[in-house]
Specification:
Layout lengths: L1 H8 L5 E4 L5 H6 L3 E4 L1 E2 L3 E2 L3 H4 L4 E4 L10 H15 L6 E7 L9 E2 L9 H12 L5 E6 L1 E3 L5 H5 L14 E3 H13 L5 E5 L7 H12 L17 E2 L2 H7 L19
Parallel strand pairs: 1-2, 5-6, 6-8, 7-12, 8-11, 9-10
Antiparallel strand pairs: 3-4
Helix pairs in contact: 4-5
Length: 260
């Protein structure tokens, strides 16, 4: 929604799909043309042909791997791509995740993806089903910013043993900035890690956010055994695109606490 709002404010015609009838008016209110679509093994919904009558498709579909099988997610994408390949769409941005990397106890780059991970297979399916040279895959780190405050998820918790692990976070404003830059600069045929360049440890990030946004401080303890970790590098993104992160350090992320 924030990406669609940003694009609409810049004068783009933006179409947005939702599975919820209640959200149709929300999309209209912020200048987005709403479409009620449901992606199962077949695409369901009225006016889907009109929805796909566009130049660029932004795909951000949660795979739901906790409740659905990887095969189900791939069947969703298969039904989507069948329609896409019969449409006017010329470019695709596909949102993936840094969970495609295992904890290798070192810095990881785009070449280090676990080829058996369901999201990696989904990336490959999109590339093979469409013109791969016209696809951009963005592997996003932990999305933070505004009401997504890391402190609130761990406030007051005791006995946390992962305080010394370095975070792979990215601010929502930077994700939007990078997506918009991809098509404004016409950068396609690439896979990028979308993660803030700096990686402070979790304890620093959580405690600072707790102090600044009035959450109960969590308790960290030293783990008996070292935890496996990964540090996801955005260096390829920086080198290829020249993007300058608005929030390079998760310790400086902007949040907005919403009171209940």
């Amino acid at each position: 929604m924030p990406l669609a709002q940003s694009l609409a404010a810049k004068g783009f015609t933006v179409k947005g799909s939702t599975t919820s009838a209640e959200k149709v008016n929300d999309l209209k209110t912020v200048g987005i043309q709403p479409y009620l679509l449901k992606l199962e093994s077949e695409l369901e919904g009225e006016s889907s042909d009109d929805f796909f009558n566009t130049d660029l498709l932004f795909i951000n579909i949660p795979p739901g791997l906790r409740v659905n099988s990887p095969d189900y997610y791939l069947s969703q994408l298969a039904s989507l791509m069948k329609v896409v390949n019969e449409s006017t769409i010329q470019k695709i941005i596909f949102i993936s995740t840094t969970s495609v990397y295992s904890e290798l106890n070192r810095d990881v780059t785009e070449a280090d993806a676990d080829k058996e991970h369901p999201l990696f297979k989904a990336e490959q399916f999109i590339l093979q089903s469409f013109k791969g040279s016209q696809v951009a895959i963005l592997r996003c780190g932990g999305l933070m910013g505004y009401d997504r405050i890391p402190a609130k998820y761990f406030a007051g918790k005791k006995g946390l043993t992962t305080g010394d692990i370095r975070v792979n976070y990215v601010h929502r404003d930077d994700v939007i900035g990078i997506v918009e830059m991809i098509f404004e600069k016409d950068i396609w045929g690439e896979t990028f890690n979308v993660v803030a360049p700096e990686h402070p440890i979790r304890q620093e990030v959580y405690e600072k956010a707790c102090r600044e946004y009035n959450y109960e401080m969590p308790e960290f303890v030293i783990s008996k055994e070292p935890h496996d970790f990964k540090i996801v590098s955005p260096q390829k993104l920086l080198d290829v695109t020249g993007y300058v992160f608005r929030y390079a350090n998760p310790l400086n992320f902007h949040y907005e606490r919403k009171e209940k």
